[in-house]
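Lab manual, section 2.4: Encoding a predicted structure.

Procedure: take the sequence of the chain (436 residues), apply the prediction step described in section 2.3, and record the output as structure tokens. A sample record is shown.
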Amino acid sequence: MPERSLADWLNLLESRHPSEIELGLHRVSMVWQRLQAEHGFNQQKSPLAITVAGTNGKGSSLACMQAILLEHGYSTGMFTSPHFLHYNERICLGGEPVADQLIVDAFELIEAQCGDISLTYFEFGTLAALVIFYQAQPDVMLLEVGLGGRLDAINIIDADVAVLTSVALDHQDWLGDTREAIAREKLGIARSGRPLIVGEQDHPAGFEQMVAETGANALFAGKDFSLTAEDPFAVSLLCSHWKEPGQLEIDQLAQSSLLAINKTVALQALLAAGIELEVAASRKALQQVGLRGRQQKLNFRGVEVVLDVAHNPAAATQLSRSLAAQQGGCVAVASVLDDKDWSGILAAMSPVISHWHIAEISQSSRASKGQYLLDLLYNAAQSGDLHQSIEEAFLQAVDAVSAVSADSEAQRIVVFGSFHTVALVLNLILAEVGIE
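Recorded output:
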């Protein structure tokens, strides 16, 4: 039988398991234990591991950590999800997506150990990342929690440092319908006696007690480490794991498309892991770091386009604040999955959007129906149009903005609501512009 390509594998994994999401560690733990025993991973030193959970800010914090580590000369492995253009984006070594063959080889090793155990698409990918990292032995593994924390596949790793970026309502069908319930699930990545970095400053009821119950050595933003509100901003960080404990102060850190709190959390997490940071190198890394789909600005046919994966009210509020501080009006291209709070997203974004172009996401069985999106839009007294596809919605928005007379206020197009929404538009832009 010829070897499967990466595309073959991904098609197989998408169709094989009956559930796209199936929380629980038993199945994936069993296969990981078999892989460790078969390939000697349990006989070698594990790379230092940092696990990141949170409603928003996970990808940004990880990107910042990766940039800082690389600037200091450390080797890195980073696992994130989902991807925008290529599956390989999920698994990076040294800041670069790994080759197809590395993933295919890892999938084959995993398949050989599954037996009668059925793994989800995400679980297979998680194990592939771990196999690749344990083979490559980077200095640090940076691991993003896919959903929740306690029962997410990444939690089979006992991380040296755990990070909780934020706690907001999202994925309520799986995590609970209160911030308290969601916080408890996300705190499941914490380990007794090990550092836990908490970026969330608006704590839900009983949060401090929940943290205490984990037994982790918690460091709280606003209490144990802090940042200023200016631009550029400054941070004060705790260096308790250094040879000479104390505070590390870094100023002249630029605000950018990545939130200052996520940059601060990244710095504090690395310090808690025992990484000694240089001020100049840290500042340089954070000045240069960016992340696809996080207030990413592009120009398409002479129109400014902002791409942001904001897919819940908390993230939409941050995006809205950023847009409100900029000159010019905004036209939206948006769509969400059916477990998202579309009404809450509308409420957050409506003050900065003059017109909405919406469509149903065709790539996901969990997409919200287009008519439902339009009905709630009209109920919120917003102006909008329903299109056949995200691509059509975007191109219609481009035409509408381009048609505005030159003496009118310049408008930008803001694409948001889902990774799927942003990816579809990004692919369209790159196909025409020809650059990434």
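Check your result against the sample. The two ends are 36 Å apart (CA to CA).
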